[in-house]
Amino acid sequence: MEPDAIAQIAHTHTVEHSQAQVLKSLKTSSFAFDKWLPPPEGWLKVNTDVAFSDGEGMATCVIRNHECTVICAKVSEFGLMIQQLQKFWR
Question: 63 and 44 in contact (C-beta within 8 Å)?
Fold first, then answer.
């Protein structure tokens, strides 16, 4: 197997692991709901967050209904794109 293919597989597994950890923390953590207010019945609430460190970043998005049930969650990792965009922020 080519080194690039191995690196891509490792990266994919890392991202999938990160996403699983976010979903796990949403299901088992009480702190996530301490200040969260549900939307009205029949509505969904979308919460997002972005964090950057050393030229890399992650974005998260969680969609919940009025019963606090997670409808959808997504984690995205940013690497080289952030480094290229930083040129415009300076």
Answer: yes
